[in-house]
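Entry 14. Structure prediction run on the chain below.
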Amino acid sequence: MKLPVVLTLILIIFRALATAASNPDVFFMEPVDSPENKLPHYRLVTEETRLNTYRQWIDNDAAKWALDLFDRAWKIAKPQAVSPTAYYIAMVPGGNHADVGFALSNASGEEMAFPNSTYIKLDPDPAVFKTTLLHETGHMVLALLNGGKKIPQKGIASIPHTTAALTDRGTAFDEGFAIHLETLAAHFLKDPEIQSRYNHQTFQVGVPLLLGEYHRTAGDLLSYSQTATRYFEVRENYFAFAPAFKGADYFRTQMEKSRDFSELRDANQLLQSEGFYASFFFSQLVRGNHPLFDDVVSGRQNKMLEVLADVFRETPPDDDSPYLVRFIERYLTKYPEEGKEVLDTFLDLSHGVFVDRKATKLWHDHYLAALRMDLAEKNNEAIESARQNWREQVLADPKILYSHLGPEIPAEAPGTSILLIAFEEAAPLSFDVNTAEEGVLLCIPGVTDSEVRTWITQRHSKPFADVADFKARSGLGVAVLKELQFPH
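Output returned:
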């Protein structure tokens, strides 16, 4: 008698489980033709020679880290589950991203749907399993903790995310969390291939390689993922600061890592900066003296996962969610004994901009005094007083962290195209009116320096509440406003 489809597939899975060599249980899949408008279809790889090869590819420290993190997140997200952790890898040529929802087919074409299961699509290349797998596991972990749903994203920016850019809150949170795992790997793992990817330890001159000294700064950009940036600049919290380039150039404003260290990004901008998210999550884990990934760092990571799960359960995320603020608020409640340290990490990295409008000038004056070596004017007493005040205000009422936030208000200038040549397709100039940086605003046809200054001054005083408020207060003339459309 023919076995029912569900039972058939369960038997296939358990046969694969019996030969699995990892914890969690890792299932390798390969794509098969998917019916139109249905979940992507795969079948399990069961041929032993290929399985042994793929298992060797996950026998490295970065992959082991990824699988262990996913296993811990699974147990937090599914505390009542009796089945073991299942980590699915789809071997897809050119694959380098995580996804949610797939169907498994057997040899007879029968299928079992997994609409809320997260999995990873990876190119069948052993090098990818030392690099891409860890980052993409970060996306899988967030989807797992979010009940099997992707993090909602608004897609405001003209180009996909980069570490230095401002995009939208969902993209920045999702990517920043994944990037901080790479920063941790570069910081702690000793694998020479991982170290050479993230940390400039080998100096190569006179060689025809993009990673040679002649090409180094350009080579990091050409990787698009900017892997070197994902270690040093994230570790050093570069992306709390505005771009150094102020001219009308979308790419230089959004993609260059050079910073103006006298100018802080404001609270709304930090919530759209994946680089800042990565710095915060990394710093929260390694704060103090931890030369190795020890039990303290691992324990903090578990608490981070638990808090994120609570945040998702309490208020389902939408594409405007202020994820980081909600994380801090929940952490203070769940782990009050660590609240001060986590809060201090957040306040120090953001330099107080979530609490105090004067924080921007306080830092600006302090930094320029240091630049002049003006020891008499570095203003340490006022700074220490302000930092104490910020902490006390948040501990008394965490809702103050929301006080300077405004909504995301997407705008487009359809007459101006942004072309990232590698992606082959141009997109209209698009941005959030409450956060777009000076160089992006100057790309709008006809806009003047004076209009941009008024725009930035007005939103710093009070974020724009909606499109009508923006049109009333931005200082833009009729001609410039005609260049803009507001799609949402």
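The beta strands are 25-31, 41-44, 86-91, 96-105, 111-122, 241-243, 259-264, 410-418, 427-432.
Filed with the rest of this week's runs.
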